[in-house]
Specification:
14% helix, four-stranded antiparallel sheet, globular, alpha+beta, six-stranded mixed sheet
Length: 273
């Protein structure tokens, strides 16, 4: 198992991260039990959007859930919590975001706040492509340009412990929980993306907001294996405690156009009198 610093060198570099995801996902696409079950169908299981649209035309009776993950969360930049960003990553091709919702929950798994309801589609949806959702405060100062603007911020009171869900029509397809024992809410998630339907236990820390770091999904088997050891079904959720970690340096974010930027140090203005 690599050290956190070694993991971060792969996990937070935009171009390396996308290439890594593409290589490993190619193993998962053809070995996932769900994909094998549907292999005889004329439809690709991942080509059909939950909103009813389909690149293949005809919709199967039961469309599979979106195979995308909450890749990186930045809850603030240098203690400015008006500058927030959430990056989604695709682990299978032809994923859809139109109709998806991001919601955040408090430490008890209650009082949900809708971060964004996505009403349009992105241009790029290949394996390894990202979708950047950020606050207007982030968009005004930081880079890269987000694909969507948050309707609401993650409340400051939710940063110590809480949960973020990626949903469609009430179904939670991805979830990350943080705060360790301080989080007492639901850890439930669709078994399509998590074999036991739970992301417990939560990540031990809170969401980072005081520096340039972020909480990111570690793209490794079981949250720590080598790329070559990725198992069938790679990209599935295991638990928030093993799937997520802090970036050891400034977070690297990528938008759907492939533009990548490292969070900068906030410039200070000095006036000489």
């Amino acid at each position: 198992m690599r050290s956190p610093k070694e993991k971060d060198a792969v996990g937070t570099n935009g171009s390396d991260r996308r290439e890594f995801m593409k290589k490993v996902a190619s193993l998962a696409v053809y070995s996932s039990p769900m994909i094998s079950l549907l292999a005889g169908s004329s439809q690709s299981a991942w080509a059909d959007c939950p909103d009813g649209s389909s690149e293949g035309g005809e919709i199967p009776p039961t469309a599979p859930g979106p195979r995308s993950v909450i890749d990186t969360i930045v809850a603030g930049v240098n203690a400015d919590t008006s500058r927030q960003a959430i990056q989604m990553g695709f682990f299978l091709s032809n994923q859809c975001v139109d109709g998806m919702t991001l919601r955040v929950w408090d430490a008890a798994g209650a009082n949900p706040v809708t971060i964004v309801d996505l009403m349009t589609e992105v241009a790029n949806n290949a394996v390894g492509d990202m979708v950047l959702i950020a606050s207007s405060g982030f968009a005004a100062i930081d880079s890269p340009a987000p694909d969507f603007i948050m309707d609401n911020l993650i409340p400051v009171s939710y940063l110590a412990a809480g949960s973020l869900t990626w949903e469609w029509s009430g179904i939670v397809y991805w979830r990350v929980c943080w705060g360790g024992a301080g989080y007492t809410g639901s850890t439930a998630v669709s078994p399509e993306n998590d074999s036991d339907g739970s992301v417990a236990p939560p990540f031990s820390g809170g969401l980072p907001s005081a520096s340039l770091s972020g909480l990111y999904y570690e793209p490794y088997d079981g949250g720590g294996g080598e790329a070559e050891e990725a198992t069938p079904g790679y990209g599935n959720s295991t638990s928030s405690s093993t799937d997520y970690n802090f970036t050891t340096g400034a977070a690297v974010l990528t938008n759907n156009a492939g533009e990548t930027a490292t969070l900068p140090v906030t410039l200070q203005m000095f006036v000489v009198e």
